[in-house]
Amino acid sequence: MASIQMVDEKLIMDQIHEYENLVADVLSEGMKMCEILQAKVLLEKFPPTWSEYRNHLKYKKRDLTLQELISHMRTEEANRLKDKETSLSSLSVKANLVESTASKDRFHQNKGRKFQKNKQQKSFKAPDRKIQKNKPVCYCCGKTWT
């Protein structure tokens, strides 16, 4: 059992099948091994990138059987593959901003200068006509108030 170690390059489920075959060989030799021990050994063989998930499962209050652990691993692997696909697709959608040297030069020309107000300030005046206000209308009967 010490010879097997999971790696990230291969699918986890393929490696689990190899582990199950190894356990079946051990059991066929007449050695007894409970399912919880089989699960604990498999838990220790997780790849390095799964260390956080391994620690989460290792310190649960209830021990997992081998089949429960495999079910958890199948779900986790599916989630990781989905996350990897979405992260790769989001990388292809993103674009980088490329500035030309002309825009950089324009920025550096004005650097350090104070903002100068236009000497010919325009003054805006309101028109001299009276603004008409709408008279309130009654919601029920429609009459206008004075």
From TrEMBL:
Domain of life: Eukaryota
Annotated region (Disordered), positions in chain: 102-129
One Pfam assignment: Retrotran_gag_2
Amino acid composition bias (Basic residues), ranges on this chain: 109-122
Entry protein name: Gag/pol protein
Species: Sesamum radiatum (Black benniseed)
